[in-house]
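Per your request, structure below.
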């Protein structure tokens, strides 16, 4: 089964990319998109470019906080912030671009944190807590956003089956969904307050996050999503811009769809969903904002991450060679 999944998941991602690009081609068929995109990039004010960069920094700072929260949950405090930030940045920069973020992220984290003496079970829990933190952020902001802007859910109705569209377009239903999502967060926090007992699965003890950890999750996850959505929001044209809350909700939906598709970097999937959910904005302006998001949030971090990985592996190789040389000297000096 594992061997089959090694082939199935890449095939699913590749298929999602192909279908998305075919739909995007139909969306822009007959248009000279190149000149329009250049004009859209030029129309973005310099101050908005600066705000998009600051939003990127906020997002990646919050992602580093994900790892620190997970380490605090595990009771590990002897790993420096510098190492945690570098490992987190590399993990997300690579996994966001490669796809299958849980799997690829686990591989990168294992390589990094195992060098600090963490066991495979500890790293697995760290990955799970980081994934949970992200999910909590989506649920919290999604719930609050729908309570504030219930009409935003109707923007996704065109991507849903026909029988769901009237139901999704109803703002009352959207408010109920928002209330349910916020209620789920309240129950999660209540579980921490009530100190739900730990579980032991195959010798591994899994503890319910304590309240200080939960409260940090409630800060870090929304900050990361707000930063990521802010990149697109500040790059969108003023005409047809529905406001930050709607952009945030559309981003959460589109980014979730991109992750679920397993497409590398959500390529094509993110763009397609976002364009469909922004019918009132100039499509070339929306596409320019999405391309800027890819540049700042995905491609530039990927370039830096490659150098971080190369530096880490070079240092590890040097340490291994020194250790081997030390053992050889000890063996040579050992009397017969």
């Amino acid at each position: 089964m594992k061997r089959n999944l090694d082939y199935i998941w890449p095939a699913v991602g590749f298929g999602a990319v192909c279908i998305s690009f075919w739909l995007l081609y139909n969306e822009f068929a007959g248009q000279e998109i190149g000149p329009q995109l250049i004009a859209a990039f030029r129309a973005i004010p310099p101050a908005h470019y600066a705000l998009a960069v600051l939003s990127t920094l906020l997002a990646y700072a919050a992602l580093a906080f994900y790892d620190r929260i997970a380490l605090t949950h595990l009771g590990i405090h002897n790993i420096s912030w510098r190492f945690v930030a570098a490992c987190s940045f590399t993990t997300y920069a690579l996994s966001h671009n490669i796809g299958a973020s849980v799997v690829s992220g686990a591989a990168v984290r294992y390589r990094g944190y195992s060098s600090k003496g963490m066991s495979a079970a500890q790293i697995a829990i760290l990955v799970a807590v980081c994934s949970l933190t992200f999910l909590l952020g989506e649920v919290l902001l999604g719930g609050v956003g729908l309570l504030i802007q219930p009409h935003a859910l109707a923007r996704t109705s065109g991507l849903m089956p026909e029988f769901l569209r009237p139901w999704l377009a109803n703002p009352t239903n959207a408010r109920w969904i928002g209330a349910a999502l916020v209620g789920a967060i309240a129950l999660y926090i209540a579980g921490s307050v009530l100190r739900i007992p730990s579980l032991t699965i195959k010798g591994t003890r899994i503890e319910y996050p304590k309240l200080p950890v939960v409260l940090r999750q409630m800060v870090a996850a929304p900050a990361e999503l707000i930063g990521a959505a802010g990149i697109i929001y500040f790059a969108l044209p003023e005409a047809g811009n529905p406001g930050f809350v709607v952009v945030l909700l559309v981003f959460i939906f589109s980014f979730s769809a991109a992750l679920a598709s397993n497409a590398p970097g959500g390529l094509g999937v993110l763009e397609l969903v976002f364009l469909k959910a922004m019918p009132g904005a100039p499509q070339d302006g929306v596409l320019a904002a999405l391309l800027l998001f890819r540049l700042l949030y995905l491609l530039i971090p990927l370039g830096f991450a490659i150098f971080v990985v190369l530096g880490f592996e070079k240092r590890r190789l040097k340490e291994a060679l020194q250790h081997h040389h030390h053992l050889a000297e000890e063996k040579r000096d050992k009397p017969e």
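The two ends are 52 Å apart (CA to CA).

Regards,
D.
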